[in-house]
Amino acid sequence: MTGPSHRRRVGSVRPSHLMFTSGVGSLVDLPNFSVLVRGLDDWSAKESELEPINEPRLVAAVRALPGMKTVGELRPAPWRDGIDTDPKGAASRVGVPVAPFPAWLRCTACDELASLTGAVFSFENDKPRRPHDARFFHAECPKSKRRPLAVAARFVLTCVRGHLDDFPYRLFVHQGADCPKAKFPRLRMEDHGGNLGANVQIRCINCGVSRNIRQALGKRNQQNLPHCRGRHPHLSTFEVCPEDPMVLVVGASNQWFAQTLAALAVPKTGASELATKIEKHWTALEDLPQQMLAWARTNVPALADLDKWSGDDVWAAIENHRKISVVEEPQVAGYPDLLTAEWEILSAPGLPDPHDDFTMTRPGVPSDLDGLLADVVQVERLREVRALVGFTRLDAPDPDDPELVTPAPLAKSAPDWVPASEVRGEGLFLRLPEQLLADWEQRVGPSAALRAHEQAYARFRHNRYSGRIKSSFDEMAHWPGTRYLALHTLSHLLIRTIALECGYSSASLSERIYAGNADDPRAGILIYTAVPDAEGTLGGLVSLGEPRELTRLLRRALTDAMRCSSDPLCSERLPAHPADFLHGAACHVCLFVSETTCERGNRFLDRRFLVPIDDPPLALYPELP
Ligand SMILES: [Zn+2]
Ligand SMILES: [Zn+2]
Ligand SMILES: [Zn+2]
Ligand SMILES: [Zn+2]
Ligand SMILES: [Zn+2]
Question: What's the DSSP call for residue 213?
Answer without folding.
Answer: G
